[in-house]
Write a structure and sequence with these properties.
With 117 residues, the protein is α/β, with parallel strands linked by helices. The protein has 4 helices and 3 strands, in the order βαβαααβ. It has a 3-stranded parallel beta sheet. α1 packs across α4. The chain starts with a strand and ends in an 18-residue tail after the last strand.
């Protein structure tokens, strides 16, 4: 059964290099997946403090860049997110896969809605 793979989270400056993204998408394609849905790391309040504390211990040189990259709500800059998801979309096309979130299709109900009176 061909499936959809959630590629998440893409970690800025840690797992977002072009060769890393290419290797990941290539491996996903090798499984027979039909689609990839990339998600860049989100850092909402609560998670942000914990993650930046860990980052400060593991990769102290990256903390200032993360603080520039993320807004107060915990979202990465739109430019960064578009660049990364664009690279992944291009790789998906190379391997003949769809890329992005599932687009909901509106379906008509099988039976009419009953009245409440």
């Amino acid at each position: 059964v061909a499936g959809r793979v959630l590629m998440a989270p893409v970690l800025p400056l840690l797992s977002d290099a072009a060769d890393q993204l290419a290797a990941t998408v290539r491996r996903i394609a090798g499984t027979g997946a039909r689609a990839v849905e990339p998600v860049v790391l989100r850092l909402p309040p609560g998670t942000r403090g914990w993650y930046l504390e860990w980052l400060g211990r593991a990769h102290p040189q990256l903390v200032a860049r993360y603080e520039e990259l993320y807004d107060r709500s915990g979202l990465p800059s739109a430019d960064y997110e578009q660049r990364i998801t664009g690279q992944i979309a291009q790789l998906c096309r190379v391997y003949g896969m769809e890329c992005g979130p599932v687009v909901a299709q509106r379906r008509e109900p099988r039976v009419a809605q009953l009245a409440l009176v």
